Amino acid sequence: MSADLLDREYDSRRDALSILLGEVGTLAEELGARDRAATLADVRRGVGEPFLFVVVGEVKAGKSSFINALLGAEVCAVAPDPCTDRVNQIVFAEEPFERELSPLLRKVGVHAEILRAIAIVDTPGTGAIIREHQTITENFIPHCDLALFVFAATNPHTGAAWDMLDFVKEQWRKKVVFILAQSDRATAAELEVNRRAVAQYAVQRGLRDAAIFATSAERERSGDKGSGFSEVREFIRETVTGAKPARAKLESAASVAAKVLDEIGEGLETQRAGLRADEAIARQIETRITAGEQRSGREIDALVARLEKSYDLLATDLKEEFEKGLSIGGLLARTFGPLIGQSKNFREWIEELKLGFSRRLAPRVAELAKEGADHYLDGVRLLLNDLIVDLQRARPAGNVNAPQIFMKLPGWHSESADGVIAKLRELLEDDRFADALAGSGTAAIPATIGAGVATVIGVVTAAVTHVLVVDITGGLLTGLAAAGAGLFVLFKRHSLIRDFRRALDEGRERFAREVEERLRGKLGVVYAEIQRGCSPFTDEVKDAHKRLAPLDARLAALRERLRVMREGW
């Protein structure tokens, strides 16, 4: 029966391998290996195709009867006279059809279960076979699993079939087997003579030890074990459709899949090696930016400390001047001196203290701020140069040492690295950026100078102005009021000095805090800009890591499935 020709597990194994080939092809396509994906698609189509038998024979040699008996199904029409002069490609179809593919080729669909696994190419049975040799030898012989040359058992000596064999290239002749059909019409002696003749003709055409079988479709239909078909089927099982050759066919396709998986593995390993190097660069970038920001922060702390020291030195002088001004002589001078135009009143004196303090503090602040900003700017410039050197070590997307296929993961890396380098160089060369850094120390100062002094002035003024009553209508009252104010300030002298000192100290704290907050705000903007400039590279490295891990997992899963599949064959 036809089922005897086929390995019973072949279909399921073929289907499983076909699915795997498709998944390997998809992975190769995703990784840019389109040529490998195309190869796998061809292999997959080949695996999915049924076994192909090409049958060549003389007119009335019994080809159609032989095919039907071999397959155990009415696949070919059997007519009493020659009925075709073209090649028929017979395939499985749910609904029968005939389709003209060319003047020399017809495709015929037949609903026979055996054709799900085996396709037949039935050639003409007349001398027209030579006219169609090109169609047969180019389209079918190279791809067939077996070519069966059928001769009448009573007369295998002449005919177009032998001429057809002359057109079959030497590398294809290993697929050829000879059939002496209708053996029930020849005597045993005739069969023996004709078998030797076929063997001799085969040797003349380069085929030694050719497989030759005598068959009888009539005896096969009657169940006669001497029909010769058992031997033919055994040969086909051993060489084409049985477990061993079918496994070899699948193994050939599996070997292609394994080779592509190995190439993908090599490509991914190259990616991993490059990614590890680029991840080290990305970590170095993050470390440098963090360290640079911390260094700039320390420089801000040092600048603020120097500014506080300068403030304290000037504040000490101011405290001494203030205490001296609140002496008895000073109070009398501030109280009565203005009446006779010899000294300034309290309000004018306090304003003079404030302005003098500010004038002395501002130049020192500007000097220290410029010095600190210069250090700050130099540190940022050094950081930018270091980052550029780091990024120049990033692996380019095109690597001459890559394996035969090089999968370019999305977002890989030289383009982004080059873009980041250009951005960092732009920051280095941008005068506005440098100016902003250079001015960052002093820009915060003007609003803070004198802030503590103004608070002190407010405390002193509030303490004395309510007793500084000037009666412009009477000189005597004015003098008494002035004297009373002076005596009042003298009475409050110690508490005023204490409050003045405390106010100056608090002013220093506010001064330092505001300077630090503004400088650190500027620091945050600068380093955020640097971080933002580097992010295209660092983000793509992170993205590549995320993409590579599942690709490794898919590769490992496909390799394991292929291993288990091959071990089960």
Written description of the protein model:
The protein is of the alpha/beta class. 65% of the residues lie in helices and 8% in strands. It is built from 18 helices and 8 strands. The protein has helices spanning 10-30, 34-48, 63-71, 128-131, 133-139, 160-167, 188-204, 217-222, 229-241, 243-325, 328-336, 346-391, 414-429, 431-438, 440-443, 451-464, 475-491, 493-567; strands at residues 51-57, 87-92, 97-102, 105-110, 118-122, 146-152, 176-181, 212-214.
What brief labels describe this structure?
18 helices; 569 residues; alpha/beta; eight-stranded mixed beta sheet
| Mean of all residue-level pLDDT scores | 77
Shape: rod-shaped
Work out the helix count: 18
Gyration radius from CA atoms, angstroms: 51 Å
How many extended strands?
A: 8
Uncertain stretches of 5 or more adjacent residues:
398-414, 436-485
For the biggest sheet, the summary is: 8 strands, mixed
Q: Per DSSP, what share of the residues sits in E-state strands of 2 or more residues?
A: 5-15%
Structural category: alpha/beta
Task: Please report the distance between the alpha carbons of the first and last residues.
Answer: 24 Å
Helix/strand order, N-terminal first: HHEHEEEEHHEHEHEHHHHHHHHHHH
Q: How much helical structure, as a percent, in the residues?
A: 55-70%
Strand order of the largest sheet: 3-4-2-5-1-6-7-8
Oligomerization status of the protein chains: single chain
